[in-house]
Amino acid sequence: MTSDLSVILPRVLIVSRRSVRKNKFVDFVGEYHLDLIVGYGAVPVIVPRVTGVHMLLDSFEPIHGVLLCEGEDLDPSLYETESSILSPEELEEIKRIHSSDTAIDKEKDTIELRLAKRCLERNIPYLGICRGSQVLNVACGGTLYQDVEKELSSKNKEGEDVVVVKHIDYDNYDGNRHVVNVVENTPLHCWFKDSLEDDKKEIWVNSYHHQGVKRLAQRFVPMAFSQDGLIEGFYDPDAYNPEEGKFIMGLQFHPERMRRPDTDEFDYPGCPCAYQEFVKAVIAYQKKISSATTIPKPIKPDQELDKRRKTIIRSFSLAKNIYLNGVRLSPAKESELEAGADFLESNTVLSSQQEKKLIQMGATVRNSTSYIEKLKMNEERERVAKIVMGKMSIEQLSDLKSFYQLMGQICSEELERKIQGIVNEN
């Protein structure tokens, strides 16, 4: 395998999370995410959570997929359209209990929401894990619970059989599990079907969050619910077909961390399927946009320009033959030198050194004396040319400029090549 994997593998953007280490900021992405992305055949491209990066997202193109995962709480102003049911005292208590998550990071919010919306606009594959699922829901107009425990508990206070689910345990990050009910005929059901009992459709998932989906955006369909009613997974059925490069999904739980103690063995065979199918979609998406990209054909000069170009080159070639071999041309052949002389007279402002070199070479001129005399007429000709061009239309001027730019480039290249050839021969 070539060492330049980025040339081969599709690119999955992942936004880092910022933390403080030894009084300095560090940006990081969990190793499980990176390992799974690489393992299934894509290359992770980390977008650093750095001020101003949200303005530079075009620099990360091409984007074949986006994976958004952990991070702090989303700014409530991005989704909260109604008055919060939580009192100021409850909000303060939430900040105290969840101090590591309630510090709003507006820069990360902006970066990730822009990436999510770019995916939705272009149908770029998107997988949201935990916070990433919340970003996806908010990007589509959904809302969030600012605190699942307080808001769902208050919502269910009148219920007789209220189930309290522990969605977060700061002392047992990887070990905390709770039951979710998987919805039939969804991708999640397909991935875990061999682990589901016929009568229950339940799995135990790793959970580490205190916020979650409140109102699911209209375009999405739930894939799993926790026993307190919280949506634990959702997807867009109209944008789900990994083989065709379609994948828009959010999972509130962490399938990448659902592993047995002190091993890398997954709790269920279906745990890595979200990443596997996501990367499958990413690869298909890359192939789809690559095949749709056409290589522009080189612009060819029209027949008239090409004819003039060949005439000028022929004039230069004859001049070189005169200079090198001292061959006298017949009157008919001498007329062919006119094109090169006229072109240089009308397009070249020469230094004294260039004049000397051209005189010595005799390139494209019939004799040096008449050529130098003609050069002295340039000033008058320039004045007359300005008068004439002032009467020309924009289209005529544009055509004239294009022609002379092309001829100038051809002349410069050919002249340099021929001069260098003469120098080498001598």
Q: Reading side by side through the largest sheet, how are the strands ordered?
A: 4-1-5-6-13-12-11-8-9
Shape: elongated
**Could you state the order of secondary-structure elements as H and E?**
HEEEHEEHHEHEHEHEEEEEHHHHHHHH
Give the low-confidence spans: 363-369
**Helix proportion of residues, in percent?**
40-55%
Radius of gyration: 35 Å
Strand content: 15-25%
Distance between the first and last residues' Cα: 50 Å
Provide a count of the helices.
15
Main sheet properties = 9 strands, mixed
Protein name: Peptidase C26
Pfam families: Peptidase_C26
GO molecular function: hydrolase activity, acting on carbon-nitrogen (but not peptide) bonds, in linear amides
InterPro entries: Class_I_gatase-like, Peptidase_C26, PuuD-like
Question: Could you please describe the fold and organization of this structure?
Answer:
The protein has 426 residues and is α/β, with parallel strands linked by helices. 43% of the residues lie in helices and 15% in strands. It has 15 helices and 13 strands. Strands 4-1-5-6-13-12-11-8-9 form a 9-stranded mixed beta sheet. It has a two-stranded antiparallel ribbon with strand order 2-3. Strands 7-10 form a two-stranded antiparallel ribbon. Strand 12 and strand 13 form a beta hairpin. It is elongated and about 110 Å long. InterPro entries: Class_I_gatase-like, Peptidase_C26, PuuD-like. This is Peptidase C26. One of its GO terms (molecular function) is hydrolase activity, acting on carbon-nitrogen (but not peptide) bonds, in linear amides.
